[in-house]
Amino acid sequence: KWHDIKDQLKLIHPMMLYSASAVQMPVDMKLAFTIESFRPLFECAVNYDPGFNAFVSNNKCYNNEHLKNALKPQLKYYGKLILSSEMKYVNQFCSALVDSRNRIAHVDGQGHEVYLDGSESALYVSVLFIIYRIELLSMLSISYQNIAQCSVESMIENTAYLIRTRNLFLQKLEKRYIAN
Q1: What angle do CA 161, 31, 140 make, to 5 degrees?
Q2: Quick one: pLDDT at residue 72?
Q3: What is Dmax (Cα atoms) for the chain?
């Protein structure tokens, strides 16, 4: 099954590994590559994870046409443990991720309301890579309960700096979107 999944992912798997590695590349570029990987990953998850397929089928607004529409269901389904705080602002959070990706991919730096700075990018590259790993394990039919037993949340929440960065970013989202 892994070979079939890897064949469908094509360059996505090596790109995710590269983006999560210690390679010398600006962290916002790593984030852009990581976020962009979730579009083809959506199709793969629909094909190989019956639970995700059912989740998407029950929510017709999820599709692969736009990056945000492919990213949001994956974060809601696979990231429910690790992104519980971000899920309060799921639309805004996904918009910030997509705007961060667009800011780098289109080299335009303008017109993006909220985007991640360097420390926020580093945090969410790590978080999104954990979600990617959860997604792969689910596609390989490893139950979510077994994945959760690995204490996914402790991978992020054990570092005070990352918690502080996360809290500051959530405050930024709240100020920007709740104030309006």
Answers
A1: 95
A2: 92
A3: 48
